[in-house]
Amino acid sequence: MSGRNILVINSGSSSVKFALVNENSDSFPLQGLAERLGTEDAVLNWSFEGEKHLTSLHGATHKDAFERLLPMVQKASHGQLDGIGHRIVHGGAHFTKATELTPNVIEVIRNAAVLAPLHNPAGLIGVEASLALYPDLPQIAVFDTAFHQSMPARAYRYAVPEHLYTEHHVRRYGFHGTSHMYVSRKAAEFSKLPVEDSCWLIAHLGNGSSTCAVVNGESRDTSMGLTPLEGLVMGTRSGDIDPSLPNHLHRTLGWDLAKIESVLTKESGLLGLSGLSNDMRTLLEASQSGNDKATLAIEVFCYRLAKSLAGMACALPRLDGLVFTGGIGENADAIREKTLSYMPLFNFKLNNEANKKCIRGVAGVISAEGSPRVLVIPTNEERQIALETLALLNNRK
Ligand code: AMP
């Protein structure tokens, strides 16, 4: 295949997700996931040219997984790999765009770990293993936070004492930046509008969810904050709560901070409300069969999403469209419909047939004539990471 190839790596504490992206194609010749690394049950799942494979990695480390990957990547890229793009969750306020991974940059990412204690060290394990194995290839960090560095201070500051911001970096950062950037550009392309003169509300709805206001290709506000816990109701995260709730739980139940954080991040959201599942598919089915708690979880999810979108509209001079993306946004027509039903003042009207058709990767306009534009655009974070890596490689030449 002609065109340059970029390997995209998303490394977690015990997993490595990877995709080989060719600049001329939306689909990936090779992609997969190494999971449970560091344990006896470590496995590698991958698909090559559409065929699925699975092998045990038995006690493998991140570096072992990369070693297994190497011949596959060589084969799939016909020996022509041009660079590696690493997803890094938190770039703090240092990184406004993708950046080449030099020892200096790695140190800054390490220092930003205070803001993302689980994610950044995990990302760096992947970076270090990959640098050891591919020392001659350009390797680039693409940050979830970078796209939101264009937010104005009125959107990113918390109303807390200033020294917490100036000395301790307490501010709103936002996440899912790669997805919001990709989807807003696609929405402009789809609507034949120039990105640099277009205004969008984006709802990225997956296991983690966030909204974003994008003006002329730049983020102006987003629902996640210092951490990904702020904002919408998510699979297992509570989203916004009364800031006094942790105190209340400590006073009344004696819970310590670790317990409170664990409950708010792992046992709340759709799972907490329904007592059944964090998976929207399961909840939609249960609600259909008369499960009241599943119905309530769906209603809270949609109402809170509608409130967030209405709030995000304050950052837009006009609205060219509202875009749904992410596993839920791309597949759940009922969630799109219910959310818009909670925003009557915006006059959104759906074309029911188009809404039902836009599932499983089908992009399209789902609004009826006369309504503000509503779109479904499948996100493709791997492709966006590859595009940013390629853009940086172009600038190097
Ligand atoms: P993501 O994190 O973007 O992979 O999205 C995961 C979420 O998408 C889960 O809550 C899934 O239940 C949801 N999802 C995927 N397919 C569907 C579907 N057909 N209908 C409703 N929700 C779906």
Provide the descriptors you would attach to this structure in a database record.
single chain, 397 residues, alpha/beta, Nucleotidyltransferase, domain 5, eight-stranded mixed beta sheet, six-stranded mixed beta sheet, 14 strands, 19% strand, globular, binds adenosine monophosphate
Q: Total strand count, please?
A: 14
What is Rg? 21 Å
Number of helices: 15
CA-based shape: globular
CATH class of the largest domain: Alpha Beta
Give the count of structural domains: 2
Instruction: Give every kind of bound small molecule, once each.
Output: adenosine monophosphate
> In what order do the strands lie side by side in the largest sheet?
5-4-3-2-1-6-8-7
- Strand % is 15-25%
Low-confidence spans: pLDDT under 50, at least 5 residues? Answer: none
Kindly identify the CATH topology of the largest domain: Nucleotidyltransferase, domain 5
Mean pLDDT comes to: 95
The main β sheet shows up as: 8 strands, mixed
Q: What CATH architecture of the largest domain would you give?
A: 2-Layer Sandwich
Summing up helix and strand content along with how strands pair, one would put the structural category as: alpha/beta
Q: What order do the helices and strands follow?
A: EEEEEHEEHHEHHHEEEHHHHHEHHHEEH
